[in-house]
User: Which sequence fits this backbone?
C-alpha cells in the first residue's frame, strides 16, 4: 500500500513537471497562426531565393551562376516547408493554395488569407534583399535602376520573359511549368501511390523546384508562382525601377 502511494505521488510530481515545461499556445486563433506561418515560410523561401539571384547578378559570375539560383530556390523551398509545414502546409504559392481548395484539402474561405500571407511574405523578402544588397546593387548598376540593358537589376526580384518569347509561348511555358509542379506535388503526397517517405517531404519538394528550374527556366525564369512574382514586382515598382517592371523583357 505504501509503495502504491509513493508511486502515485511520483506520478503526480512528474506530471506537474511535465506540464510546467509544456509550451504555451499563445496564438489560439487558427487564422492568425496559419497566416503568420504562411507569411514566415514564404518569407524564408523568398529571402534565400532572391538572395541567390542578387549574389549571382551583382557578383557578375564570381559568386555563382544559374545553377546557384536553382539551388537557392530549391533549398529555400525546403527550408520554408520545415518552417511552416505543420501549421499552414507551407503552400508558399497561390497556385498550390487554389489547387488544395479544388481538391477539398483547404476551405475556400481560407484562400484569401493564404494569398495575402504569400504576397506579404514575398514583398517583405524583396525589401529585405534590397536592403542587404543595396550597396552591391548600386555599385553594380551605378545607381541607375533599370529593367533592361546590360546592367539591369529588376530581374533580381521578379521574372521577365526572354525577348524572343511570344505571348502565347510565355503562357504555355508558365502553364506547363505550374501544371508539372502541381502534378508532382500531388503525387508526392498521395498515400495510395508512391508518396515521399515520412520526413523527406521538404527535400523532395525542394528537389522538384530545382528540377523545374534546371529544365524550364530559360524562357521566363520559371516563376510558376503568382504570389512569388507579383509582390516583388510591386516592390521594385515603388523602390525606384518604375512602371517598366510591368512591361520589360530580358536583354
Assistant:
Amino acid at each position: 500500500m505504501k509503495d502504491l502511494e509513493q508511486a502515485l505521488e511520483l506520478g503526480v510530481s512528474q506530471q506537474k513537471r511535465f506540464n510546467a515545461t509544456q509550451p504555451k499556445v499563445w496564438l489560439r486563433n487558427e487564422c492568425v497562426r496559419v497566416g503568420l506561418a504562411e507569411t514566415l515560410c514564404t518569407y524564408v523561401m523568398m529571402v534565400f531565393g532572391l538572395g541567390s539571384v542578387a549574389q549571382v547578378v551583382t557578383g557578375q559570375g564570381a559568386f555563382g551562376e544559374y545553377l546557384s539560383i536553382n539551388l537557392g530556390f530549391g533549398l529555400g523551398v525546403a527550408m520554408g516547408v520545415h518552417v511552416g509545414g505543420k501549421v499552414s502546409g507551407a503552400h508558399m504559392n497561390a497556385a498550390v493554395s487554389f489547387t488544395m481548395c479544388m481538391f477539398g484539402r483547404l476551405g475556400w474561405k481560407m484562400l484569401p488569407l493564404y494569398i495575402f500571407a504569400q504576397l506579404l511574405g514575398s514583398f517583405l523578402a524583396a525589401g529585405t534583399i534590397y536592403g542587404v544588397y543595396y550597396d552591391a546593387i548600386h555599385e553594380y548598376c551605378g545607381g541607375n535602376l533599370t529593367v533592361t540593358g546590360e546592367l539591369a537589376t529588376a530581374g533580381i526580384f521578379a521574372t521577365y520573359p526572354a525577348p524572343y518569347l511570344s505571348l502565347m509561348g510565355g503562357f504555355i511555358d508558365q502553364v506547363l511549368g505550374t501544371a508539372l509542379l502541381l502534378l508532382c506535388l500531388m503525387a508526392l503526397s498521395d498515400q495510395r501511390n508512391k508518396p515521399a517517405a515520412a520526413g523527406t517531404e521538404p527535400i523532395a519538394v525542394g528537389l522538384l523546384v530545382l528540377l523545374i528550374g534546371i529544365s524550364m527556366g530559360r524562357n521566363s525564369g520559371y516563376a510558376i508562382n503568382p504570389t512569388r512574382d507579383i509582390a516583388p514586382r510591386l516592390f521594385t515598382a515603388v523602390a525606384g525601377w518604375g512602371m517598366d517592371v510591368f512591361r520589360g523583357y530580358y536583354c
Remarks:
- The chain is about 65% helix and 0% strand.
- The domain at 28-246 is CATH 1.20.1080.10 (Glycerol uptake facilitator protein).
- The CA atoms of residues 27 and 223 lie 33 Å apart.
- The chain has a mean pLDDT of 89.
